[in-house]
Structure formats: C-alpha cells, structure tokens
Amino acid sequence: MAVHIEKKYWYGWKSVASVSYKNDARGKVSYHKISADGTYRLRFISDPTAYSFHVWGTFNK
C-alpha cells in the first residue's frame, strides 16, 4: 500500500511526498516535506494495479 500527500496546483494535483509499506500504516506518513502553504489531500493506493482513492476533503498547512 502507498500513501501519497498531494498538493493542489493551478493545473491539478501533484504528489509531494509518499510512503509505501506492507501492513501497518499508523504513524508512518511524514509531513516534513510540506514546506509551503497550500491545499493538500491524502491519496491511498492499495497496489500498483488497483484503483486509488483519497480522503474526502483537504487540509492546509
């Protein structure tokens, strides 16, 4: 499973940080790469061939 932190730009969403791991995801996403103000979302991908989904809503730094 992979978790991507995506930032919203004028042209769309772009991944600014990501973490991949096999099982437990709790506490393993680092936010230190979010260095600028903006709107962000989390995107979860269960495996490379699966559809991804994201948490509804966004968060700001």
**What is the CA-CA span between the terminal residues?**
25 Å
Q: How many extended strands?
A: 5
Give the overall pLDDT as a whole number: 71
Low-pLDDT residue intervals, each spanning 5 or more residues: none
Largest sheet: 5 strands, antiparallel
| Form type | globular
Number of helices: 0
Strand content: over 45%
Could you explain how this protein is built, in words?
0% of the residues lie in helices and 48% in strands. The chain starts with a strand and ends with a strand. The radius of gyration is 12 Å and the shape is globular. Strand 1 and strand 2 (12-20) form a beta hairpin. Strands 1, 2, 3, 4 and 5 form a five-stranded antiparallel β-sheet that branches. It has one domain (2-24, 35-60). The chain has strands at residues 2-9, 12-20, 39-45, 52-54, 59-60. The chain has 61 residues and is mainly beta. The model has no long low-confidence stretch (mean pLDDT 71). It has no helices and five strands.
Give a quick set of tags describing it.
five-stranded antiparallel β-sheet, globular, mainly beta
Topology:
Layout: E1 2-9, E2 12-20, E3 39-45, E4 52-54, E5 59-60
Antiparallel strand pairs: 1-2, 1-3, 3-4, 3-5
Short description:
The chain has 61 residues and is mostly beta strands. 0% of the residues lie in helices and 48% in strands.
